[in-house]
Every structure is written in structure tokens, then in C-alpha cells.
């Protein structure tokens, strides 16, 4: 369980707390995505 604090409204200092259950479990087989060089060149990166 993870406890987080969130503002009640944008620009307001009042906070609310929420306890969240972890919903994603990594099981192996993760990979790192890297766009192709041609995509990066076209995107101007």
C-alpha cells in the first residue's frame, strides 16, 4: 500500500490523503523502448 497526498483543488493548499494498492507487478521480460534514429531525426530531437 502506498499513501499519497493530493490537493483538494488546483491552487488550494488543502490536501486529501489516499491509500492506493499496487496494481502492477513486474514479472520479468521488461524491455527498454528506444525510437529509431530516423524517427528522432524527423522529430528534430
**Structural class label:** alpha+beta
Number of helical regions? 1
Nearest-angstrom radius of gyration? 19 Å
Global morphology: flat
Series of secondary-structure elements, N-terminal to C-terminal: EEH
Q: Biggest β-sheet: count, sense, barrel?
A: 2 strands, antiparallel
Mean pLDDT value: 85
**Percent in strands:** 25-35%
Q: Spatial order of the strands in the main sheet? A: 1-2
Describe it.
The protein is of the alpha+beta class and 45 residues long. The protein is built from 1 helix and 2 strands; from the N terminus they run E-E-H. Strands 1-2 form a two-stranded antiparallel ribbon. Strand 1 and strand 2 (15-20) form a beta hairpin. The two termini are 38 Å apart. The model has no long low-confidence stretch (mean pLDDT 85).
Structure characteristics:
about 45 residues, alpha+beta, two-stranded antiparallel sheet, 1 helix, about 15% helix
Q: What order do the helices and strands come in, and which of them pair?
A:
Blueprint: E1 2-7, E2 15-20, H1 37-43
Antiparallel strand pairs: 1-2
Kindly summarize this structure in a few lines.
By secondary structure, this protein is of the alpha+beta class. It contains one helix and two strands; from the N terminus they run ββα.
Amino acid at each position: 500500500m502506498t499513501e499519497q497526498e493530493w490537493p483538494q483543488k488546483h491552487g488550494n493548499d488543502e490536501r486529501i490523503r489516499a491509500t492506493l494498492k499496487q496494481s502492477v507487478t513486474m514479472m520479468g521480460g521488461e524491455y527498454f523502448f528506444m525510437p529509431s534514429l530516423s524517427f528522432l531525426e524527423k522529430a528534430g530531437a
